[in-house]
Predict the structure.
Amino acid sequence: MKVILIRHGEAEPHRTDDAGRALTQHGRHQAQKTGHWLRKSLHHEGGVVCLLASPYRRARETAEVISGQWPLPVGTVEAITPDTDPRVALVAIEQASAGADIVLVVSHMPLVGALAAWLETGTVGAGRGFSLAEARVLEADMLAPGLATTVDDFIPGITDQ
């Protein structure tokens, strides 16, 4: 199975309502590039694709832009917000994506970094950071700590040049 962890695109400056921050035009452009790369990279893959997003506006908007490349419905998972424990987030992702062969998860730092570390090494920690709209592809026989390997990565504006 493949799990693709994606950080949201560039959002409006921080304000009191962090959950309500929208994508900027640049953030939408980043999400389009990431969605295009994902569609191109996964076009030969078979199976069920599931697209999940944090309930925060910037993550939902990023997922909606990406979903336009397939199209795919976007599922919202309450337990994948920035400060969620990666162990709790992984259980929620597993439940929301049951039966999927490819799971795309659009969320935030520090959670995406911590999830990648949890899946790759089995240790809870911050992990390696994600750039805005970065997509990191992990492969594993099952979603469990320490069993995944990063097999690909895309950063709009960097790896697409």
